[in-house]
Amino acid sequence: MQTLRTATTMSADAPRPASRNDDKPVAIDVRDLSLTFQTTDAPVVALTNVNLQIKAGEFISLIGPSGCGKTTLMRVMADLEHPTSGSITVNGLSPEQARLARAYGYVFQAPALYPWRSVRRNLMLPLEIMGVPRAERDSRAARYLEMVGLKDFANKFPWQLSGGMQQRVSIARALSFEPKLLLMDEPFGALDEITRDHLNEQLLRLWEQTQKTVIFVTHSIPEAVFLSSRIVVMSPRPGRILEVIDCDLPSDRTLDVRETPEFLAIAHRVRVALRAGHSYDD
Amino acid sequence: MVLAAIVLIWYVGAVWLNAGLVEQRLEQSETKATAAEFIGTALALDRPLLPAPHQVAEEFYDSVFTRDVTSPRSLVYHAEITGSATLLGFALGTVLGIVLAVGIVSWRTLDRSLLPWIIASQTIPILAIAPMIIVVLGNIGLTGLVPKAVISMYLCFFPITIGMVKGLRSPDPLQLDLMRTYSATPSQVFWKLRWPASVAFLFASLKVAIAISLVGAIVGELPTGAQGGLGARLLSGSYYGQTIQIWAALFMAALLGMVLVALVGVVERMTLRRMGAKP
What are phi and psi of A50, to 5 degrees? Predict the structure, then answer.
């Protein structure tokens, strides 16, 4: 809870983009961030001069073609990569402090379940590591399995589940220790369209219920527009932010919203922005 | 089919190899023999170059089932001695192998400094080093079971170390990143990720290791002049030219090895099933 307090003090000097989360504290503050990977042949510039302020409770999508640094940016937030220059705070803390305070749950591209653990015990893994008492672990596992609709699969092993179910387990696992911040790296990238639509809808409901801050990496425009409150359009070589597009679809939207002119208008803006990034490249 | 073919080849080989001995005997007694008599004699020699399968089977049956199990003429007695040295050596080797693997995986310096020594240790012929181990251990008062177990351990820790190093390093970057996002301690990463991930590798190496530790225990019995054990049985057989006895002891060793490997296999299946392996 210490993290929350410091985050509140941070909000005073943060810039205030027009958004309905205007009054919320800043969850993530990225300033002039650059990251260059030192490889054996030539240095690779993954991110240059990234500036981004994310308010608590926002659903932010990072979208862009492969190699635009969206995953890298998220890994920096998670303290899995270190920036070469610039600054970043997560809930007012450095990424490392935030990681040590277990401020975020990370959902990877692949489910990354441990095959020797049943679904229930996979879900309890972070709780065991964080020293949550046994009774509490059991009740949380039950609650979050219910939330992702897998309570009948608690004692199954990962290989007995479909890809979509496995990814739901991994989302439940990230929620289980109740972090304020959810970092999701193309969690539905490997799933078929139908499963993906279904999970998108579930995730949206989940976000509404829990009021978490979600950072979501994707390269699907409809997915980004459907889920997000703001869309960050990125471009490769070097990785940078092209444009941040507000996305104010009604909060009780269903998949049908994708047929509305408002949705299509935002999707069009995102597409135009992405194309602008490409012409730079040619 | 394979068994029948082996037995057939064996019979042919027995006649062919023992032909010289039979000829010698015929010359001495200055008698003539038909082909059938010739073959019959070749397969019923007391001390043949290569005993026929039924001779080995008979000896095996005799020394396993008709002798008192505490008598030195019983193969069960010898198998028990060798078996206990094997198991002790295997247990020691497993512990040593795992400890070395954990060290190598945990400390970068050990990875570079230890592995060459481990490999070097395996290039030394065990027959050269076994008598020295026995002399040294004998000097500090360890005789009998322990020196044999030590030789067995010396041979069998190697596949376990190699297998476990691979197993402990088998978690993919994603699984490791996950632990990092939980800010897990190194010991949590070990017990909750590296160790369970290596179990399948461990059992694969245990199967190799237990067979090797049996060889180690037998080799350990050769230079000691041990009174009991399959190795001692092989040695006394070759002193007195008792080829049938040697072959029976060899079969006992093979049988023992098969049983031990099968036991490891059973434990493996039970463990991996509990860890959610596909049936």
Answer: -85, 125
